[in-house]
Amino acid sequence: MSTATAKKKQSGRAVRPLKIRKDDLVEVIAGKDRGKRGKVIRTIPRENRVVVDGVNQVIRHQKPRPASRATPQTQTGRIVKLAPLHVSKVMLVCPRCNQRTRIAISFTPDGKRVRTCKKCKEYIDSV
């Protein structure tokens, strides 16, 4: 199956919300940056990916181009960018117990939906 057909099939289904959100502290559990912790800068729910600060840095080589009115001078040479990671390669770090943990969804007594740490049973979201 080509990538074009795979993307068409993927775009047709409903996008489930990620349990990891922007500004969460996460730890990488697989890959070249295993063990590193960082803050989530951006989430991409459609692709099940997150961008984590200081993790999965890639180098892009930008050729110098003359500046004009339409395009101002951009940075050239070796540019370090942050590439997205699949959400299965990161785990949330609980702000209370400071351990990486899975996330449970529970409800407060007034019916509000919150994320809960599976290890210490405390709320991750502020209530």
CATH-derived topology of the largest domain: SH3 type barrels
CATH architecture of the largest domain: Roll
The total of beta strands comes to 10
Q: What is the makeup of the main sheet? A: 6 strands, antiparallel
Oligomer: single chain
Helix segment tally: 1
Give the rounded overall mean pLDDT.
Answer: 87
What portion of residues is helical? under 10%
CATH class of the largest domain: Mainly Beta
What coarse outline follows from CA principal-axis ratios?
Answer: elongated
Q: Rg to the nearest angstrom?
A: 19 Å
Give the distance, in angstroms, between the N- and C-terminal Cα atoms. Answer: 46 Å
Low-confidence blocks of residues: none
Strand order of the largest sheet: 6-3-2-1-7-8
Strand content of the residues, in percent? Answer: 35-45%
Domains, number? 2
Structural classification: mainly beta
Which H/E pattern describes the elements? HEEEEEEEEEE
Tell me briefly what this model is.
This protein has 127 residues and is mostly beta strands. The chain is built from 1 helix and 10 strands.
Structure description:
This protein is mainly β. It folds into two domains: 15-65 and 73-93, Roll (SH3 type barrels); 96-127, no CATH class. Helices cover 8% and strands 36% of the residues. The protein has one helix and ten strands. A six-stranded antiparallel sheet has the order 6-3-2-1-7-8, with no helix packed on it. A hairpin with a 6-residue loop joins strand 7 and strand 8. The chain is elongated and about 60 Å long. The termini are far apart.
